[in-house]
Amino acid sequence: MINYKIILDFQLITNNLSTRGTAMKSKNTKGNLLVIAIMGSFCLGVFLYGLFTSFYGLMIIQESAFYFVIGLFFLICIGLPSLYWAISTAYRFISAVPTCIKQRNIRVINPLLLDEEELYSSTEKWLCTVIRDIAIAKKISKTPVVGVELSDNNPNAYAVGANRSNSMVVVTKGLIKHLNHEQIAAVIAHEIGHITNLDTIAKTLLSASWDGVMMILFTPLLFVVWYLGKFVALLMLVAGLIYGFLGNWEYATGYFTGVTIWVLLLLLPSVTQFLVISLTFFHSRKGEYHADAVAARLTS
User: Cα–Cα 20 to 30 A to 109, which of 46, 171, 253, 299?
Assistant: First the structure.
């Protein structure tokens, strides 16, 4: 049996607190919009870099045998990866919800069929109603798709989608089993908070930016620095040791500096990965706090 009292109490709370919630929602949304703008511009820049190098490779590939190798390198290591990255990133945005449904054992609840006899359980009907009410309270134009992950017995929930109009809230079988209606409503409000605060699209762009950096920038860099540069670095190291042994430290210092630069270039992808992961963790934790605030405002 659907607990309509909880739904009515919930609607009363959302009506009373909708005005107070505007300031925090606006603050966090503006922060995510800034992240989206920066990461979107960065992704566009990386993609344009890939297109430019591909065009340059095609232009020089017919010049001579040497330029043929250089042009082929640009096409294989930069051009094709940039196109693959652009297509895969666009696909992640467009098909986030259906891909998640396909990859996981998710039972989708159709709100238009709630009145059908024995199609959905009372709990599933209640879930659909609560998500609809929370979406209305948060002024989401299109109610998120409702899904239950049947293969996960752990209490969990998550939001999927690249924007507010194409999103999905999924609760696991374990969440329904271990939590009561008030607790489930709070968890659902938390996940819808992620959608309204644009956390899902910001997180997707952060992940896509790192994929683009590794695939288009650092992959060719590591190829040159490691597979070709290590021989040059070894020669510079030997030459530096020889000049140092002979007492000519001016030349030795120059060769040692070259070896140091080679090491720094080799470590650059790892250092960048650490910084991106740290930024992602910081953004994710901040988003969790704001989503918790949404749940606290909308539920008891």
Answer: 299
Residue 231, token pair as written in the block: 């021989």
Name the CA radius of gyration of the chain, rounded.
27
Q: How many CB atoms lie within 10 A of CB 260?
A: 12
Cβ partners under 8 Å of residue 254, min gap 6:
240
The amino acid that residue 80 corresponds to is L
pLDDT in tens, 220-274: 767 777 777 788 888 888 888 888 888 888 888 888 888 888 888 778 777 877 8
As beta bridge partners, residue 148 has 107, 171
The string of DSSP codes covering 110-127 is -GGGTTSTTTS-HHHHHH
